[in-house]
Design a protein that fits this description.
The protein has about 150 residues and is mainly α.
């Protein structure tokens, strides 16, 4: 599942970059300006935004590939990156239904579903158990638990 989601995110990243390059060319050719900004700066910012968003999607795809290869749930920051990608796809899906149409909404919801499925199909607890117990002070093994000093109520 994570591999399929990574593949779709990679295709989406390429599509986003190409879309922003196209939008940049349209702004350049039409000499469009907004609020006094130069058309060239708007064109350049469209390309930069497309590159950043495409890079973000490729990062998410890399996290999903790592998840699929290791067969472990992502933890920490990598899990947060995937959660943020799911939220972005949910918001983009809500916006695209009115602006682009139901086909774009369906695509966004499929990607959202694949990301969420990848997040919930791998257990975080299993990943923590495979990595072993948490280290004790100074990176050494964890100290054994001290016995309970309270008398038992038997």
């Amino acid at each position: 599942m994570a591999g399929a989601a990574a593949l779709i995110l990679t295709v989406e990243a390429v599509g986003i970059v190409l879309l922003h390059i196209f939008l940049s060319m349209v702004v350049d050719e039409q000499q469009m300006s907004m609020a006094g900004l130069e058309p060239r700066s708007m064109s350049l910012s469209a390309v930069v935004a497309g590159g950043l968003f495409g890079g973000y999607l490729l990062l998410c795809a890399a996290v999903l590939v790592r998840t699929a290869v290791r067969d472990r749930a992502p933890t920490g920051l990598l899990r947060i990156v995937l959660i943020s990608a799911a939220v972005v796809h949910g918001l983009l899906g809500a916006a695209t239904v009115g602006l682009v149409g139901w086909a774009a909404f369906l695509f966004m919801m499929v990607v959202l579903g694949l990301i969420v499925w990848s997040l919930v199909s791998y257990s975080v607890e299993e990943a923590a158990e495979r990595e072993g117990p948490p280290p004790g002070p100074a990176g050494g093994p964890a100290a054994p638990a001290a016995p309970d000093p309270r008398p038992s109520a038997s």
